Structure formats: C-alpha cells, structure tokens
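Supplementary Methods, section 5.1.

A reviewer requested that the exact input to the structure prediction be made available. We therefore reproduce it here, unchanged from the version used in the analyses.
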Amino acid sequence: MILQMAEKLGALQELLAEMDTRRAKVVGGGGPERIKKQHQGGKMTARERLEVLLDADSFLELSTFVQHQGGKLMNGVDAPGDGVVTGRGTIAGRQVFVFSQDFTVLGGSLGKMNAQKVAQVMDLAAKTGCPIIGLNDSAGARIQEGVDSLSGYGEIFYRNAIYSGSVPQISAILGPCAGGAVYSPALTDFIVMARGSSYMFITGPEVIKSVTREEVTFDELGGADVHTQKSGVAHLERDSDSEVLETIRELLAFLPQNAKEKPPMLPTTDPSNRSNPKLLEIVSPDTKRPYNMLEVIRELIDDHHFLEIQPDFAKNIICGFARMGGRSVGIVANNPRQMAGTLTIDASDKAARFIRTCDCYNIPMVTLVDVTGFLPGVAQEHAGIIRHGAKMLYAYAEATVPKITLIVRKSYGGAYLAMNSRDMGADVVLAWPTAAVAVMGADGAANIVYRREIMQSENPEATRAQKIAEYKAAFENPYVAASKGYIDDVIAPEDSRRILIQALEMLALKEETRPYKKHGNIPL
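The structure derived from this sequence is encoded token-by-token as follows.
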C-alpha cells in the first residue's frame, strides 16, 4: 500500500515537474538573447509591462500553453504562448482584461491562435463589463500563416467595433505597429505611445520609397510625435514604457468599468466651495488680450490636476479629464492663445471625438467658451469645415450626460452653438460678466448693420467708432442672452468652482432618452 502511494506520488511529481518546465518555457518567451535585445532597445518585455501596469499579484494568465497551428511554413518553429500574453488583473482594485504582445517570440506577429487568445479576453471583458487594455509591440501579420493571420485581425477588429462604447478600450503602442495592425488601436478609445521606441503606419519607409521615391525614417513617418502633433491618431505620448503604463492607470481612474456604470467618485481634500479670486487676474475683460485657459481650468478643478487629451494636436481647443467635488468630468475649452481660439477642422474632430467618448462612459461635460467663430479661409472651406464642424454640433446634441456651459468671454456665431449652447442641449448655461454673446464681434457687425450710415457720414471713421461702441453696449454682454433665457445666471468668476460643482450635483441623477433608432448618422 505504501509502495503504491509512493509510486503515485512520484508520478504526480513528474507531472508537476513537466508542468513547471513547460510553464517556465512559456514565461521565458523568446529566450535570454531576445529578451536582452528587447532591453537594449529601451523596451520592457511583455510580462514586465504587465507587472508595471497591474496591481501586484493580481494577474491571472489565460491560454498559457497555446501554440501556433500553422502549416508547413511553421513546421519546427517554436513559439511559446504564440507571441502574446493574455489574462486578467486589477488596476487600483478594479478588474481589467489585458493582452501584451511579446516581440521576443516571432516578433510578436499575429497568427490565428495569437488572435484567438486576444479575442478570448476581449469577449470576457465584454461579458463581465470590464475595460480592455492592449499592449502593442508586434511586427504585424504572420506571413507564414497566410489568410489565417488576416482572419485573426478581422476577429479583433470586429470586436473592437462591436464593444466600442460598451467597455473602455485603451491601446498602448510600445514598439512597431504597422500595416493592418494599426487599425485595432485606431478603433479603440485611447492610444498612448512611447516616444522614440514606437511607431504606427500603414506602409513602411521602404514601400513609400519604392512607390513615391520619398525617403523617410520610421520615426519621421509614424513616430509618437507625428501621431500626437500632426495626424491626431494618438492621444498621449510618454518617454518610456513605464510612463505609458502609469498614464494608462491614471486615465482609467477617470473612466467607469462599462457603459452601464458611472465613473468612480474619489475623495478630495480640495473644498467644493473654494473661492477663485485668481481667475480675476488670469482673464482680462479686454477681448483682444489672450490668456492661459489651462490656468483657468486648473483653478476650477480638484487639486489643480488635469489630464489633457491630445495636448499637442489642434491646440486651439483643449480637451481632458479632471474631477470636481470628487466627480470625474470631461472638459472642453477654447484656447485663446492658439489661433484666437477659433474652431478648425482638426479642433472640431478632436472635440467631437472627446465629447462622444465622455457620453459613452457617463462622464459629465463642462464646456468653457471663449470663441470668435470657425476659422475663415479657402483652405478650411475646401477641406470640409462644414462637415467637420457639424461633428461637434452632432456630438453635443447627441450626448445625454449632464452638460454645463460657462461662457468666459466671447461666444460668437455658429461657434456659439458648436460650443454647447442652451439650444444644443446644455442643461445649465452660466456666464461671467466679461462674456459677450452675439452673432459676431462689434467691429464686423457695425460694418454690416450701420454700413450706409458710416459711408454717408462726413466723418466715416468717427461714425464707425460710435456705432461700434453702440453695438458693444447693446449686444456685447451676457445680459441680452440672459434676458431671453439662453443663460441661466451671470456669476462672479471667483464663485465659479462652487457653482459648477453645485450644478454637477444637481444633475447627478439626470436621465434623458432619444427617439428610437438603430444608430445616428454622424457626418463623417
């Protein structure tokens, strides 16, 4: 009897030893030499990234022992985990699902089984109502697997689309992301790139050189600076893998687990009734004097902490996350220091996308207005400013989250509507005494309204100056709009934080429905 038990125990120990050996091989990825090369490139390995991103000891790996099922071109090829690590973990105690591409295994290339692992965690995230985080570092489609590799990308893209707006999806670009691979991150809510070690493009420098004879480096073509400053594809960039991962943790804190929940409330020691006398110093009543809108935002929010989204793209509009009274809010604001805060094609796209993201995830919106209008010009008109500007109008009108607008200074013309006016669905509209709401500025308006009087006058310049002054007195103030119910209250700047937080508290239980439809048709 004892002998039989000893034999069984010995057999079990052999099985456990085999399991440990197999697991160690998977955990070892592509082996010491490839891991060393990854580190020499300034990059972490797939598993090291998960250790930084997730809470300690929270990672549960899934599909650990999956291997490629490739054809004859993959015979004899060893690919531990098939080039991707997948599973669940927690961030600040909240469950998330993750996949981390392993560049040390076949360059992190995507094959059929690799894609199935990713699809599995995406499905689990949707079923359990948890965010999906993808850590991208891949050479792209695995050529040896042919159409199976393309099918794998299709499975992922499909899930990116159908789960969009259901659970948050965040992509980190921590190495190469080329060809069809770029479309999965592009379908997610946020993209964060590592400066100097990551890039995204459809066709690489060699293909471009052969087709157009243009010579360009990987970084010049699709590096982090390109996509955060020029293309607008990426939302944030950081200097290293670890900074990217910390930023994702910070970003996630503003978001709910899914579209059925509200973002988490976080305690703050910053008093809700804190006065803002500094705002009187920041914003001049002189509409021609620019000021730093970021300073205004930081003065209003909890602990002056603002996570700006796409800070280097379309700088004439500011978008980002903050908290007010412990509550997560999305902020959209004109930036008078850039192009006088006018709305352009890129600014409209940036704002519309951000507004819709906030609406997807039940994040209240605070809009700060100081806008003269849409940027005039042939280039803007020919490039479709009408279509792009309509995106902002559509996004604000469609949004059902609490929407509060504060007019800081100018609010003119169509841009008055595009910046969430009462007519576009704002729940509360406030204004400072410095605000001016009109169809256009006094200079332009006087030239049109009083054109005949000015032209027939003996002293046209003096008459023009007089008419400008009359127009300003009659229209360039918040009280005309307030008298017609378009503005709820004109408030002292120093009271802004307290009143905004009170308005957010008032709207906390807001519910609003829309007519039945399959989906709207936003002007893309």
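The radius of gyration is 27 Å. These observations are discussed further in the main text.
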